[in-house]
Amino acid sequence: MPKFGFIERQTKDFINIDPLQTGGKLSEEAKKALVEWGDGYSVCDFCTGRLEEIKTPPIYDFVHETLPEFLGCEVARITNGAREAKFAVMHALARPDAWVVLDGNAHYTSYVAAERAGLNVAEVPNTGHPGFRIEPDRYAEVIEETKKKGDVVLAVLTYPDGNYGNLPDAKRIAKICHEYDVPLLLNCAYAVGRMPVKMKEIGADFIVGSGHKSMASAGPIGVLGMREDYSSALLRKSAKYKKKEIEFLGCTARGVTIMTLIASFPHVVERVKQWDKEVEKARWFSAKMEELEIVQLGDKPHNHDLMFFESQKLYEISKKAKKGRYFLYKELKKRKIHGIKPGLTKHFKLSTYMVPKEQLEIVIRAFEEIIDRYS
Protein backbone atom coordinates (compact mmCIF):
# COMPACT_ATOMS: atom_id res chain seq x y z
CA MET A 1 0.00 0.00 0.00
CA PRO A 2 2.68 2.54 -1.00
CA LYS A 3 0.27 5.41 -1.73
CA PHE A 4 -0.90 5.55 1.89
CA GLY A 5 0.84 6.49 5.13
CA PHE A 6 2.28 9.97 5.64
CA ILE A 7 1.41 12.33 2.77
CA GLU A 8 3.32 15.57 2.50
CA ARG A 9 1.35 18.73 1.81
CA GLN A 10 3.17 20.08 -1.21
CA THR A 11 1.90 23.64 -0.86
CA LYS A 12 2.69 24.13 2.82
CA ASP A 13 5.60 26.50 2.10
CA PHE A 14 3.80 28.44 -0.63
CA ILE A 15 2.44 31.97 -0.31
CA ASN A 16 -1.13 31.16 0.65
CA ILE A 17 -3.94 33.49 -0.51
CA ASP A 18 -6.76 30.95 -0.22
CA PRO A 19 -9.73 32.55 1.63
CA LEU A 20 -10.52 29.18 3.20
CA GLN A 21 -7.09 29.00 4.80
CA THR A 22 -5.63 32.43 5.56
CA GLY A 23 -7.66 32.85 8.76
CA GLY A 24 -7.35 29.22 9.76
CA LYS A 25 -3.58 28.85 9.94
CA LEU A 26 -2.69 27.38 13.30
CA SER A 27 -0.88 29.39 15.94
CA GLU A 28 2.29 27.88 17.39
CA GLU A 29 0.29 26.91 20.51
CA ALA A 30 -2.32 25.18 18.35
CA LYS A 31 0.36 23.21 16.50
CA LYS A 32 1.50 21.81 19.86
CA ALA A 33 -2.11 21.05 20.81
CA LEU A 34 -2.57 19.23 17.51
CA VAL A 35 -0.04 16.61 18.61
CA GLU A 36 -0.89 16.65 22.31
CA TRP A 37 -4.61 16.01 21.79
CA GLY A 38 -4.54 14.13 18.50
CA ASP A 39 -5.53 10.70 19.81
CA GLY A 40 -9.15 10.02 18.92
CA TYR A 41 -11.77 11.58 21.19
CA SER A 42 -9.04 12.76 23.53
CA VAL A 43 -11.12 15.14 25.64
CA CYS A 44 -13.69 12.42 26.30
CA ASP A 45 -11.38 11.10 29.02
CA PHE A 46 -12.64 14.01 31.13
CA CYS A 47 -16.31 14.04 30.06
CA THR A 48 -19.27 13.21 32.30
CA GLY A 49 -21.83 13.53 29.54
CA ARG A 50 -21.54 16.96 27.90
CA LEU A 51 -18.61 18.58 26.13
CA GLU A 52 -19.25 22.08 27.47
CA GLU A 53 -19.30 20.79 31.06
CA ILE A 54 -15.66 19.56 30.96
CA LYS A 55 -13.67 21.62 33.44
CA THR A 56 -10.25 20.05 32.86
CA PRO A 57 -9.19 20.98 30.21
CA PRO A 58 -11.09 24.29 30.67
CA ILE A 59 -13.77 23.79 28.02
CA TYR A 60 -16.46 24.82 30.52
CA ASP A 61 -14.85 28.23 31.10
CA PHE A 62 -14.29 28.73 27.38
CA VAL A 63 -17.86 27.91 26.32
CA HIS A 64 -19.78 29.51 29.18
CA GLU A 65 -17.67 32.60 29.88
CA THR A 66 -15.00 33.45 27.34
CA LEU A 67 -16.82 32.63 24.11
CA PRO A 68 -20.07 34.52 24.91
CA GLU A 69 -18.03 37.61 25.77
CA PHE A 70 -16.05 37.30 22.54
CA LEU A 71 -19.15 36.80 20.39
CA GLY A 72 -21.22 39.39 22.24
CA CYS A 73 -23.97 36.91 23.04
CA GLU A 74 -25.59 35.42 26.13
CA VAL A 75 -25.27 31.68 25.43
CA ALA A 76 -22.71 29.86 23.27
CA ARG A 77 -22.03 26.37 22.01
CA ILE A 78 -19.34 24.60 20.01
CA THR A 79 -20.49 22.87 16.82
CA ASN A 80 -18.85 20.73 14.15
CA GLY A 81 -18.82 23.68 11.75
CA ALA A 82 -20.71 26.82 10.76
CA ARG A 83 -23.11 24.83 8.60
CA GLU A 84 -24.03 22.59 11.53
CA ALA A 85 -24.65 25.69 13.65
CA LYS A 86 -26.97 27.17 11.01
CA PHE A 87 -28.84 23.90 10.66
CA ALA A 88 -29.29 23.59 14.43
CA VAL A 89 -30.94 27.02 14.57
CA MET A 90 -33.12 26.37 11.52
CA HIS A 91 -34.20 22.95 12.72
CA ALA A 92 -35.05 24.22 16.19
CA LEU A 93 -37.20 27.06 14.81
CA ALA A 94 -38.75 25.19 11.87
CA ARG A 95 -42.49 24.67 11.54
CA PRO A 96 -44.50 23.01 8.76
CA ASP A 97 -44.63 25.17 5.61
CA ALA A 98 -42.52 27.91 7.25
CA TRP A 99 -39.93 30.09 5.51
CA VAL A 100 -36.40 31.35 6.00
CA VAL A 101 -35.19 34.52 4.26
CA LEU A 102 -31.59 34.38 2.98
CA ASP A 103 -29.43 37.08 1.43
CA GLY A 104 -28.61 36.60 -2.23
CA ASN A 105 -24.92 36.18 -1.41
CA ALA A 106 -25.55 33.34 1.05
CA HIS A 107 -23.22 30.34 1.14
CA TYR A 108 -24.65 27.18 -0.38
CA THR A 109 -24.71 25.56 3.06
CA SER A 110 -27.34 28.05 4.20
CA TYR A 111 -29.65 26.77 1.45
CA VAL A 112 -28.83 23.13 2.17
CA ALA A 113 -29.37 23.62 5.91
CA ALA A 114 -32.75 25.20 5.23
CA GLU A 115 -33.75 22.36 2.91
CA ARG A 116 -32.66 19.76 5.45
CA ALA A 117 -34.69 21.54 8.15
CA GLY A 118 -37.77 21.42 5.92
CA LEU A 119 -37.95 25.18 5.41
CA ASN A 120 -38.94 27.05 2.28
CA VAL A 121 -36.39 29.64 1.11
CA ALA A 122 -36.97 33.22 0.01
CA GLU A 123 -34.01 35.22 -1.28
CA VAL A 124 -33.08 38.87 -0.89
CA PRO A 125 -31.42 39.68 -4.25
CA ASN A 126 -28.11 41.48 -4.49
CA THR A 127 -27.63 44.54 -6.70
CA GLY A 128 -25.77 42.61 -9.41
CA HIS A 129 -22.53 43.47 -11.20
CA PRO A 130 -20.25 45.11 -10.14
CA GLY A 131 -21.15 45.71 -6.48
CA PHE A 132 -23.31 42.68 -5.64
CA ARG A 133 -24.48 44.55 -2.54
CA ILE A 134 -27.27 43.53 -0.20
CA GLU A 135 -29.48 46.55 0.43
CA PRO A 136 -31.22 46.52 3.84
CA ASP A 137 -34.60 47.72 2.58
CA ARG A 138 -34.85 44.67 0.34
CA TYR A 139 -35.15 42.55 3.49
CA ALA A 140 -38.34 44.43 4.35
CA GLU A 141 -39.73 43.83 0.86
CA VAL A 142 -38.92 40.12 0.81
CA ILE A 143 -40.13 39.45 4.37
CA GLU A 144 -43.37 41.29 3.67
CA GLU A 145 -44.01 39.32 0.47
CA THR A 146 -43.01 36.02 2.05
CA LYS A 147 -45.30 36.49 5.05
CA LYS A 148 -48.22 36.35 2.60
CA LYS A 149 -47.16 32.77 1.82
CA GLY A 150 -46.53 31.55 5.38
CA ASP A 151 -44.62 32.05 8.61
CA VAL A 152 -41.11 33.49 8.36
CA VAL A 153 -39.24 31.88 11.27
CA LEU A 154 -35.73 33.17 10.53
CA ALA A 155 -33.68 35.56 8.42
CA VAL A 156 -30.00 35.01 7.61
CA LEU A 157 -27.36 37.58 6.69
CA THR A 158 -23.96 36.45 5.43
CA TYR A 159 -21.48 38.88 7.02
CA PRO A 160 -19.31 39.09 5.00
CA ASP A 161 -20.30 36.85 2.13
CA GLY A 162 -17.81 34.25 0.95
CA ASN A 163 -17.68 35.44 -2.66
CA TYR A 164 -17.24 39.21 -2.66
CA GLY A 165 -16.33 39.93 0.96
CA ASN A 166 -19.11 42.51 1.21
CA LEU A 167 -20.17 43.79 4.64
CA PRO A 168 -23.82 44.95 4.48
CA ASP A 169 -25.44 47.26 7.04
CA ALA A 170 -26.14 44.48 9.52
CA LYS A 171 -27.55 46.79 12.22
CA ARG A 172 -30.14 48.18 9.84
CA ILE A 173 -31.07 44.70 8.63
CA ALA A 174 -31.46 43.45 12.23
CA LYS A 175 -33.77 46.38 12.98
CA ILE A 176 -35.89 45.66 9.92
CA CYS A 177 -36.16 41.95 10.77
CA HIS A 178 -37.30 42.74 14.30
CA GLU A 179 -39.92 45.16 12.99
CA TYR A 180 -41.46 42.08 11.37
CA ASP A 181 -40.84 39.87 14.47
CA VAL A 182 -38.31 37.77 12.57
CA PRO A 183 -35.08 36.71 14.35
CA LEU A 184 -31.81 37.31 12.51
CA LEU A 185 -28.87 34.91 12.24
CA LEU A 186 -25.49 36.33 11.25
CA ASN A 187 -23.32 33.90 9.31
CA CYS A 188 -19.91 35.26 10.30
CA ALA A 189 -17.71 32.42 9.06
CA TYR A 190 -15.33 35.01 7.58
CA ALA A 191 -15.75 37.55 10.39
CA VAL A 192 -15.56 35.92 13.83
CA GLY A 193 -11.84 35.58 14.61
CA ARG A 194 -10.72 38.01 11.90
CA MET A 195 -12.49 41.27 12.69
CA PRO A 196 -14.37 42.84 15.60
CA VAL A 197 -17.99 41.64 15.58
CA LYS A 198 -20.48 41.46 18.46
CA MET A 199 -23.95 39.98 18.11
CA LYS A 200 -25.57 42.29 20.67
CA GLU A 201 -24.05 45.45 19.18
CA ILE A 202 -25.50 44.56 15.80
CA GLY A 203 -28.81 43.55 17.32
CA ALA A 204 -28.93 40.02 15.91
CA ASP A 205 -30.35 36.96 17.65
CA PHE A 206 -27.83 34.33 16.56
CA ILE A 207 -24.22 34.45 15.42
CA VAL A 208 -22.25 31.68 13.72
CA GLY A 209 -18.47 31.43 13.26
CA SER A 210 -15.96 28.99 11.80
CA GLY A 211 -12.92 27.84 13.73
CA HIS A 212 -11.09 26.37 10.76
CA LYS A 213 -11.83 29.32 8.45
CA SER A 214 -11.21 32.22 10.79
CA MET A 215 -10.14 31.19 14.29
CA ALA A 216 -6.77 29.51 13.66
CA SER A 217 -8.09 26.06 14.48
CA ALA A 218 -7.91 22.59 13.01
CA GLY A 219 -11.33 21.71 11.70
CA PRO A 220 -14.04 21.18 11.12
CA ILE A 221 -15.33 23.21 14.06
CA GLY A 222 -17.78 26.06 14.50
CA VAL A 223 -19.13 28.37 17.17
CA LEU A 224 -22.71 29.40 17.81
CA GLY A 225 -23.94 32.30 19.92
CA MET A 226 -27.54 33.14 20.77
CA ARG A 227 -29.81 35.25 22.91
CA GLU A 228 -30.88 33.66 26.18
CA ASP A 229 -34.56 33.59 25.21
CA TYR A 230 -33.79 31.20 22.33
CA SER A 231 -31.80 28.77 24.47
CA SER A 232 -34.83 26.70 25.50
CA ALA A 233 -35.55 25.89 21.84
CA LEU A 234 -31.92 25.35 20.83
CA LEU A 235 -30.69 23.49 23.89
CA ARG A 236 -33.60 21.11 24.53
CA LYS A 237 -32.48 17.74 25.85
CA SER A 238 -33.22 14.14 24.98
CA ALA A 239 -36.08 12.47 26.85
CA LYS A 240 -34.01 9.32 27.34
CA TYR A 241 -30.45 10.67 27.60
CA LYS A 242 -31.08 13.58 29.94
CA LYS A 243 -27.75 15.35 29.46
CA LYS A 244 -27.71 15.24 25.67
CA GLU A 245 -28.76 18.32 23.69
CA ILE A 246 -30.77 17.15 20.70
CA GLU A 247 -29.86 19.81 18.14
CA PHE A 248 -26.16 18.96 18.53
CA LEU A 249 -26.75 15.18 18.52
CA GLY A 250 -25.49 14.96 22.08
CA CYS A 251 -21.91 16.08 21.49
CA THR A 252 -19.78 17.94 18.96
CA ALA A 253 -16.03 18.69 18.84
CA ARG A 254 -14.53 15.82 20.78
CA GLY A 255 -10.79 16.17 20.41
CA VAL A 256 -8.14 18.06 18.56
CA THR A 257 -10.56 20.58 17.03
CA ILE A 258 -11.74 22.08 20.32
CA MET A 259 -8.26 21.98 21.82
CA THR A 260 -6.63 23.81 18.89
CA LEU A 261 -9.46 26.38 19.02
CA ILE A 262 -8.74 27.01 22.69
CA ALA A 263 -4.96 27.00 22.16
CA SER A 264 -5.19 29.64 19.42
CA PHE A 265 -7.72 31.82 21.19
CA PRO A 266 -5.29 34.32 22.81
CA HIS A 267 -3.60 34.70 19.43
CA VAL A 268 -6.97 35.26 17.74
CA VAL A 269 -8.03 37.90 20.28
CA GLU A 270 -4.83 39.86 19.66
CA ARG A 271 -4.97 39.71 15.87
CA VAL A 272 -8.57 40.97 15.81
CA LYS A 273 -7.19 44.20 17.29
CA GLN A 274 -5.14 44.63 14.10
CA TRP A 275 -8.15 44.53 11.78
CA ASP A 276 -7.77 48.11 10.54
CA LYS A 277 -4.31 47.24 9.25
CA GLU A 278 -5.68 44.18 7.45
CA VAL A 279 -8.32 46.31 5.72
CA GLU A 280 -5.70 48.89 4.73
CA LYS A 281 -3.53 46.13 3.28
CA ALA A 282 -6.45 44.64 1.34
CA ARG A 283 -7.26 48.03 -0.20
CA TRP A 284 -3.62 48.50 -1.19
CA PHE A 285 -3.59 45.07 -2.83
CA SER A 286 -6.84 45.78 -4.67
CA ALA A 287 -5.44 49.03 -6.06
CA LYS A 288 -2.27 47.28 -7.29
CA MET A 289 -4.31 44.56 -9.02
CA GLU A 290 -6.45 47.17 -10.74
CA GLU A 291 -3.29 48.78 -12.15
CA LEU A 292 -2.94 45.47 -14.03
CA GLU A 293 -6.57 45.72 -15.25
CA ILE A 294 -7.65 43.02 -12.80
CA VAL A 295 -10.78 44.61 -11.39
CA GLN A 296 -12.03 44.07 -7.84
CA LEU A 297 -15.79 43.61 -7.64
CA GLY A 298 -17.97 44.12 -4.58
CA ASP A 299 -17.74 46.90 -1.99
CA LYS A 300 -15.46 49.83 -2.82
CA PRO A 301 -13.59 50.95 -0.86
CA HIS A 302 -13.35 47.38 0.34
CA ASN A 303 -13.79 46.57 4.02
CA HIS A 304 -12.60 42.97 4.19
CA ASP A 305 -9.61 40.82 3.26
CA LEU A 306 -11.66 38.49 1.03
CA MET A 307 -11.86 39.92 -2.48
CA PHE A 308 -13.35 38.90 -5.82
CA PHE A 309 -11.59 39.89 -9.04
CA GLU A 310 -12.54 40.00 -12.70
CA SER A 311 -9.96 39.90 -15.49
CA GLN A 312 -10.94 39.98 -19.13
CA LYS A 313 -7.23 40.05 -20.01
CA LEU A 314 -6.42 36.77 -18.23
CA TYR A 315 -9.54 35.21 -19.71
CA GLU A 316 -8.49 36.13 -23.24
CA ILE A 317 -5.02 34.67 -22.60
CA SER A 318 -6.62 31.41 -21.43
CA LYS A 319 -8.28 30.98 -24.83
CA LYS A 320 -4.86 30.74 -26.52
CA ALA A 321 -2.49 29.46 -23.80
CA LYS A 322 -1.16 25.92 -24.04
CA LYS A 323 -2.61 25.00 -20.66
CA GLY A 324 -5.90 26.67 -21.53
CA ARG A 325 -7.93 27.87 -18.56
CA TYR A 326 -5.47 26.13 -16.21
CA PHE A 327 -2.56 28.31 -17.29
CA LEU A 328 -2.95 30.79 -14.42
CA TYR A 329 -3.02 28.10 -11.76
CA LYS A 330 0.09 26.46 -13.29
CA GLU A 331 1.98 29.75 -13.54
CA LEU A 332 1.20 30.70 -9.94
CA LYS A 333 2.15 27.22 -8.74
CA LYS A 334 5.56 27.56 -10.46
CA ARG A 335 6.03 30.71 -8.39
CA LYS A 336 4.93 28.93 -5.19
CA ILE A 337 1.69 30.85 -4.85
CA HIS A 338 -1.37 28.88 -3.73
CA GLY A 339 -5.02 29.73 -3.32
CA ILE A 340 -6.70 30.47 -6.64
CA LYS A 341 -8.68 27.45 -7.81
CA PRO A 342 -7.52 25.54 -10.89
CA GLY A 343 -9.32 26.56 -14.07
CA LEU A 344 -10.29 30.08 -12.99
CA THR A 345 -9.06 33.05 -15.02
CA LYS A 346 -11.90 35.49 -15.65
CA HIS A 347 -13.26 35.45 -12.10
CA PHE A 348 -11.47 34.39 -8.93
CA LYS A 349 -11.34 35.25 -5.26
CA LEU A 350 -8.47 35.45 -2.80
CA SER A 351 -7.63 36.70 0.68
CA THR A 352 -4.82 38.88 1.98
CA TYR A 353 -5.52 38.10 5.64
CA MET A 354 -2.34 37.76 7.72
CA VAL A 355 -0.27 37.52 4.54
CA PRO A 356 2.82 39.76 4.94
CA LYS A 357 2.94 42.72 2.56
CA GLU A 358 6.29 41.53 1.17
CA GLN A 359 4.62 38.31 0.07
CA LEU A 360 1.70 40.18 -1.45
CA GLU A 361 4.21 42.25 -3.45
CA ILE A 362 5.51 38.95 -4.83
CA VAL A 363 1.95 37.98 -5.80
CA ILE A 364 1.46 41.30 -7.60
CA ARG A 365 4.74 40.87 -9.49
CA ALA A 366 3.72 37.33 -10.42
CA PHE A 367 0.50 38.54 -12.05
CA GLU A 368 2.42 41.26 -13.83
CA GLU A 369 5.03 38.78 -15.12
CA ILE A 370 2.35 36.32 -16.26
CA ILE A 371 0.43 38.97 -18.17
CA ASP A 372 3.62 40.29 -19.80
CA ARG A 373 4.74 36.81 -20.78
CA TYR A 374 1.51 35.87 -22.53
CA SER A 375 0.85 39.28 -24.02
Automatic annotation (TrEMBL):
Secreted keyword on record: no
Molecular function per GO: Sep-tRNA:Cys-tRNA synthase activity
GO biological process entries: translation
Reactions that this protein is recorded to catalyse: O-phospho-L-seryl-tRNA(Cys) + hydrogen sulfide + H(+) = L-cysteinyl-tRNA(Cys) + phosphate
EC number: 2.5.1.73
Complex and partners: Homodimer. Interacts with SepRS.
Role noted for this protein: Converts O-phospho-L-seryl-tRNA(Cys) (Sep-tRNA(Cys)) to L-cysteinyl-tRNA(Cys) (Cys-tRNA(Cys)).
Cofactor: pyridoxal 5'-phosphate
Family under the similarity heading: Belongs to the SepCysS family.
Organism the protein comes from: Archaeoglobus veneficus (strain DSM 11195 / SNP6)
Modified residues (N6-(pyridoxal phosphate)lysine): 213
EC category: transferase
Source domain of life: Archaea
One Pfam family matching this protein: SepSecS
Residues reported to bind pyridoxal 5'-phosphate: 82-83, 187, 210-212
Signal sequence range: none
Protein biosynthesis as UniProt keyword: yes
Protein name (record): O-phospho-L-seryl-tRNA:Cys-tRNA synthase
Keyword vocabulary terms for this entry: Protein biosynthesis, Pyridoxal phosphate, Transferase
